[in-house]
Structure formats: C-alpha cells, structure tokens
Amino acid sequence: MASLIFRRLKHTHKSALSEIYFGVNTLNRHSFLRSDSQFIANSITSPYSKFVFFDNLSPIANIEQGKLFTLNYNTIGLENRYLIDDWIKNNELRTTQMNQSPLIHFLGLDTSKFTPFKYNQYSGVPYYAIEISKHPSLAQRLSKYENLKPLITREDVNKVLDYKESTIFSHGKIYLEWLSTTKYCKGCGSQTIPINAGSELKCSNTESCPVKDSPVSNASFPRLDPALITCVLNPTKDKVLFTRMSKFPAKMYTHIAGFMEPGETLEESVKREVWEEAGLIVDELHIVRSQPWPYPANIMIGCVAIVKDGNIDLNHDIELDEAVWVPLTKLKEIISKGKEDENLTIIIKGEDKGIPNDKTLATKLFQYVAQNY
C-alpha cells in the first residue's frame, strides 16, 4: 500500500525565504549555562540584561515602538529587585519556596551586540522572560510607562511584532505556559519545582517517585507537539489546493493541517491527513521547512505533496468547508499583486480568494511552490 502512495520521497532544503516568523535565530540559548547558578545570578542582576514581561502569557509591548517592552534589574524598582533576589536564591536551593517566586525563564544571550556583560568566555545581552500576573508589584511598576499593551491575540502579535521580536515572544511564551500549567509531577502528583532558570521541573517528593527516580530522565521538560501543514499540488503540478474552514477570516484560504499521532512517521501523518480531509492520495512528498508555533507549544512542519489524482472528497473527516483547485498562475498573481487587508489576508481587490500574510508558514509554502513549480 505504501508503495502506491509514495513513489518518491524527497527532503528538500531549498526554501522560499530564509526567515520564518517565530523562528529567527535571535538569541544564543547557552543551554549548558542554565544549571550554573552563579551565571544565572550574575546575568539576571546585570544592568545590561533585558527582562521581557508577560501578563497571563500575553507579551507586553510598546505599541508606538512595535517592540517588546523591557526593563532590567536596575530599572525594575526596589520591591521587585527583592523578588528577583529571592528567585535567585530559590533557583540555587531548588526547594518548593521557588513556587512563591515569579515564573522566570532564561532565554539566552544576544551575542550580536557588544555588551560589557561577560561570564568566563561568554558575553552578550542576557534576556529573561518574566510572568507578572501573580505579582502586583511588577504590574504596578509597568503601569508607570506609557504606550504599553498586552498582545492578547495572535492577530495582535502579528500586527505589532517583527520577526526578531516574535521569536523572543514565542520562546518565552512556550516556556512560561509550560511552567504555569505543570504544577504537579506526572509520576506521583507532588508539587514540581522549576529548576535551572525555568528550563526544567523537578519533583518535590522526598519518597519514591517514578519520574524523580528514573535513571535516564529524572526531571520534566517542556512538551512540544508536532503538527503538519501540507501544500497540495495536482499530478501535473499546475494547480494548488486552496482549503478553508468556517472559522477563517472571510476569503482566506490555506492548506491541509493536523497533528501527528503517536506511532506515526511524519510521512505517514501527511498521507493520512491529506486523505482524511480531502480524499486525495499522496504520490510524492517534499519536507520544506518548519516553524515554532506558540499556541500553545507546537512545531509546525511544512510540506509539499503531489497527489495521484485530483478527485477531491470532503466526506471522510468533515473538517473543511471548502477545498478547491486553483491554477498555479493565479497563486503567483495573488503573491505578486495582492495586498494585505485588515484580516491579515493577502488578496487582490475585488476577488474572492486570498492567502494568509507572509508571517505564516502557510504562505511560505505558497511562495515555495510559486518559485519552484
């Protein structure tokens, strides 16, 4: 059966554009320094550090500047410096007292700019993500500044943050959401303790615990759910499948997408999703590129599939409202002549089909097929 579905499988490294929203290589994470309590203490208290703030997991941005709002240890205020000092102590001691401190995660060092901060041979601007919702003194400090706003929706983030800023947001949001929703050990139900600057969770149980006592992985790490998004071409590669669901903005079309299931390869998952949603049999597959997706914590894997025939059938998994073949020439016209509207849809004025803006992996795939087929 597999040989009927995949004649050829290709992993391609050629992409339409070099950068992807939420996925620009902005900070060097220096993950090996997360467990170095002296480095963490030195970097978080450095006057050259940058604290990125979240309110109930929504990033706080300066709307006029179009950037994430940042402060540092010196500018955060005396009361909040005490909060940071307690967090530093609890991060080193690894006790349940850490759960009284703000949720904080070390994001990494920006090594692209000169900074006097240095630790051994490592230098850069230290970045930290901080959740403020449970600590009124942090919110009160931020209230003293003008033009600040939490970016609550995906559309808010898309409209305000550029590629670099979106990547810092994505990194921080995924870790802070994991820390805020994983309060208890999956092995024994005891409280968990954030350790290593908010990058791992340790079980607080002093007795036997299947997680804590594991010889291989005795701490918990963030969960990342893989999801696939597949741009589908007809057998002659001159038409592309446009799909839409009722929840999409008017006139916006995209691709077939879904989560990988346990026990599936990436290739088998693409095959299943394309058949379940559109009734099409994949004949050839190209894995193109990926995108972190912080809603809540996914890695989107972008693919291009060429199908065996063009007979669409939406009667298996009733998920799509519409799936239509669009000439590749029309897609190229939308990309070259379309303008972004208030719904973040690229569309030609007066027409009824558009695509998401180019901060999405969906349109990176549309651009890829337009350039390569």
TrEMBL record:
Keywords: Hydrolase, Magnesium, Metal-binding, NAD. The keyword Magnesium applies. GO terms for cellular component: cytosol; peroxisome. It catalyses: a 5'-end NAD(+)-phospho-ribonucleoside in mRNA + H2O = a 5'-end phospho-adenosine-phospho-ribonucleoside in mRNA + beta-nicotinamide D-ribonucleotide + 2 H(+). One of its GO terms (biological process) is NADP+ catabolic process. Its EC number is 3.6.1.22. It comes from the Eukaryota. GO terms for molecular function: metal ion binding; NADH pyrophosphatase activity. Its cofactor is Zn(2+); Mg(2+). Residues 223-348 form the Nudix hydrolase domain. Transmembrane segments: none annotated. The keyword Protein biosynthesis does not apply. Belongs to the Nudix hydrolase family. NudC subfamily. PANTHER family: NAD-CAPPED RNA HYDROLASE NUDT12 (PTHR42904:SF6), NUDIX HYDROLASE, NUDC SUBFAMILY (PTHR42904). This is NAD(+) diphosphatase.
